[in-house]
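Hi R.,

Here's the chain you asked about this morning:
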Amino acid sequence: MGDNGAIARFLADHDGVVTIDQALSCGLSRGEIKGRVARGDWLAMARGLYRSATHPVTESSMIRAAVLAYRGVADRTTAAWWHGLLDVVPEGITLSCAQARAPLDWPVSIRSVRRRYGPSALTTVRDLPIARKPLTALMTSVELDEGSQFLDRALQTKAVTLVELQRAIDDNAGICGMARARRLVAVAASDSESAAERLFVTLLKDRGLTGWVQQLWLGPWRMDFAWPDLQIAVEISGWSYHRDVRRHGNDLAKANYLESIGWRELQFDWHMINDSGEDCIQQVINLIDARSTVDSW
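And the predicted structure, written out as tokens:
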């Protein structure tokens, strides 16, 4: 028989997912709901929760159903995707609920945490209760392996601001992971380029590399690190959030100049040095070895 009227509009706006209370609010009777289930028009997903058989199973429908089934709120990486901060839904629906719930026998992983948020931490997006964007960005930054890069992109695209992130940390200081998130925000708010240079110096000394100098002028440009005898330069940058179009243009011009005079350049940013410092140093060593070979000149 199909759905029409208010319930059809509701299903269309809610990914084909509806609770019994929502269906009643749309004007259906309990008997009409049972009839839809008996005919196979609606499929029971959990107690009092249904999916219209005419609507496809999507990431959105499963997230919405999980949040409703657990009577919780979407947070962490799932909330990041819902807010548009991530392009792909990470494996496992992440949500929080006030009381522990029995796991659902669904073909998707649900990572639920027992947690109560304050009212200021939550919002509603497409009629789904969800952690606000600044808090979501912070929690996701400590969940992802490349969390600092994720947070950098969120700042760079102005999806969140430093002020919003700092306020969210202060308002949710007791949440697991906030200490690490606070450290990332502190780096973002500071001169991350200088911090990256200091860390790079430490890595160079730990590996016993010599022959390098800092702040070497070549023509109109100043190199962060250089091996003059081998004509190698290393440029260090901080978070992309701090770089503007002019800085990007200067970096390209500098790279072109070095190429024109026969120098080789390596470029590392804070994330690369902080997360994979040994890989960065190994690239430097490989280039030194290559440039030290007479046949390579």
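The mean pLDDT is 92.

Let me know if you need anything else.
M.
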